[in-house]
Amino acid sequence: MVRHLSPERVESLARSGQAVIVDVRESSEYRAGHIPRAKHIALSHLVHRLREVPKDKMVVVVCRSGNRSSRAVELLMAAGFRNVYNMQGGMQRWTGPVATV
Q1: What is the four-CA torsion angle of 29, 16, 11, 67, rounded to 10 degrees?
Q2: Of 5, 43, 61, 63, catalytic
Q3: What is the pLDDT of residue 2?
């Protein structure tokens, strides 16, 4: 079962460094605006880049609306990740700071 966190909770976790944020959107979406310090791994590449996601830390997965990130959480859980969450509503609901590339 996918667990969800509100964007407000994710902002607090990101600000304090308590969670690793993984953005699973496509490169163009990420470049247009992402959560500061979020690690970019497109959903289509995630299965090949699992080593880049820490198993010993809280991981929050983000996409545009929450659908791709929910699938990514399921993939991560199937790969043995336990402390992984989906950000509800994705970047569409994010009101915190945004970084661009």
Answers
A1: 60
A2: 63
A3: 95
- Residue 63 appears among annotated catalytic residues: yes
Write out the two tokens for 43: 């959903």
Flag whether pLDDT at 95 surpasses 90: yes
12-60 pLDDT, tens digit per residue, is: 999 999 999 999 999 999 999 999 999 999 999 999 999 999 999 999 9
Q: How far apart are CA 77 and CA 81, in angstroms?
A: 5
The residue with tokens 């909770």 is 9
Residue 17 has, within 13 A of its CA and on its CB side, a CA count of 0
Task: Give the architecture-level CATH label for domain 4-93.
Answer: 3-Layer(aba) Sandwich (3.40)
Radius of gyration of the chain (CA): 12
Which token pair is 94? 């994010």
The number of beta carbons lying within 10 Å of the beta carbon of residue 78 is: 9
